[in-house]
Specification:
230 residues; Immunoglobulin-like; six-stranded mixed β-sheet; 4 helices; alpha+beta; rod-shaped; 26% strand
């Protein structure tokens, strides 16, 4: 009877002890909630940071692997093309030839000739002036009508001059090689002329008369060429 009382007393004591455990205070619960919330925010921040880093690394890899020529800016920007060098594009410079000098009058000879020695009544003489470069270098001579004169005389009688009725007076510069010649021909109509080209009724005599042809070029005069008119 006494043991049963003791055991029942212990059972009541143990039951009362288990029911007497202290519950957590509201402050503890708040601290626990704050801790859990902070941990959750940290996890979210780490996740967001991870995505951001992943985007940065993936963007840098794409930029480094992209060909600059394929970017819009590179395709729209002009590309400078080097100009070809002067030696490649331009032909080699040709040296400018030195101007040909005027012939030394002392080295120029003028001669006169006719195509025949004697002419019949219906034949007109062909008077020829010839200028020759007697120098050793090419030179220029003005053989235009401004310089030439075909003169026909008979003794002191001035019969004909190509200058008397010349319509125009022109220059004609020719380059003559050493030893070469230039010629000019004048068909004479067996007429008389006077200075100023006034009309002349008389004509040169025939019947075997002799005439002298002198060719002039500037201040140079040829030796006399004699011919006969029948």
């Amino acid at each position: 009877m006494g043991r049963q009382g003791d055991s029942s007393a212990r059972g009541k004591a143990s039951a009362s002890g288990s029911s007497s455990v202290r519950k957590a205070s509201p402050a503890v619960y708040r601290r626990r909630r704050l801790f859990a919330g902070g941990a959750l925010l940290m996890v979210i921040a780490l996740v967001v940071s991870g995505f951001a880093l992943a985007g940065v690394f993936s963007g840098s890899e794409q930029a480094s692997s992209t060909d600059p020529a394929g970017s819009p800016a590179a395709s729209e920007s002009p590309t400078a093309t080097p100009e070809p060098s002067a030696s490649a594009s331009a032909p080699p410079a040709t040296p400018t030839p030195s101007p040909t000098p005027t012939c030394n009058q002392n080295l120029v000879t003028v001669s006169a000739s006719t195509d025949k020695a004697a002419y019949g009544p219906e034949e007109n003489p062909m008077l020829t002036l010839k200028v020759t470069n007697g120098g050793t270098m090419p030179c220029q001579v003005n053989i235009g009508t401004s310089q030439m004169e075909f003169l026909v005389t008979s003794g002191p009688d001035r019969i004909f001059s190509s200058r008397d009725c010349q319509a125009t007076s022109e220059d004609l510069v020719k380059t003559i090689a050493p030893g070469a010649s230039e010629t000019a021909n004048f068909p004479w109509s067996r007429n008389r002329t006077v200075e100023g080209c006034q009309a002349v009724e008389s004509k040169p005599g025939t019947g075997g008369a002799y005439y002298i042809f002198t060719a002039k070029l500037g201040s140079k005069a040829s030796p006399k060429a004699v011919f006969q008119l029948n």
